Amino acid sequence: MTVPLQPADSRFAVERATREDQALLFRMLQFYYFEATQWSGEDLLVDGLFECDPAGVASYCEPDGVDAAWLLKVDGQAAGFVLVELIPFEGGQIRELADLFVMPKYRRLGLAEAATRKIVPGHEGPWLLSVFRKDERALRYWQGAFARLPFRSVQPGPHHELFHQFIINGDVPG
């Protein structure tokens, strides 16, 4: 399914990843993990790849799956992805904007914000957003984006050693 993101910029699209997109998503995840080594501390495996379970990638591409991957495109070209997961949290479940990655070439065009505007409002209830504590650039991005995005509320989440956590559009489920 392709959904135009913003009428002002028809160059942007978000597509729910399908089974045919598994290889593309796997490869883009490798770029994401490479960039994240700056704050995650992950190392390459002996095969030269970052740890990324192909079965896990496949689960994001199931049409009726609980978790989902969305491919971000600019002028039809793969430009990034968003992973959405339903996770256990504080005795309940919460939808998490688990990972959002935009290829460097396509940054600062508004693609991440446009994708967030389409994905988050499509689901009722609260969302969790976690940002690596060491990823200062992402934290600055989200702090600015919170003021621009149409969220009902943004609250600090519980303290986590590795992440800044935020609860979007509601109270922590319990």
In sequence order, what are the helices and strands, one letter per element? EEHHEEEHEHEE
Q: Give the count of helical stretches.
A: 4
Note poorly predicted spans. Answer: 1-8
The end-to-end span amounts to: 33 Å
Helix-strand category: alpha+beta
Let me know the largest β-sheet: 8 strands, mixed
Mean pLDDT: 89
Assigned CATH architecture: 3-Layer(aba) Sandwich
Can you tell me the overall shape? Answer: globular
Tally the structural domains.
1
Major sheet: order of its strands?
Answer: 1-2-3-4-5-6-8-7
Give Rg in angstroms: 16 Å
Determine and state the CATH class.
Alpha Beta
Q: What portion of residues is helical? A: 25-40%
CATH superfamily: Gcn5-related N-acetyltransferase (GNAT)
CATH topology: Aminopeptidase
Estimated share of beta-strand residues: 25-35%
Tally of strands: 8
How would you summarize what this structure contains?
The protein has 174 residues and is α+β, with helices and mostly antiparallel strands. It has helices at 22-40, 54-60, 111-119, 136-148; strands at residues 2-6, 9-16, 68-74, 77-89, 92-102, 127-132, 154-156, 163-168.
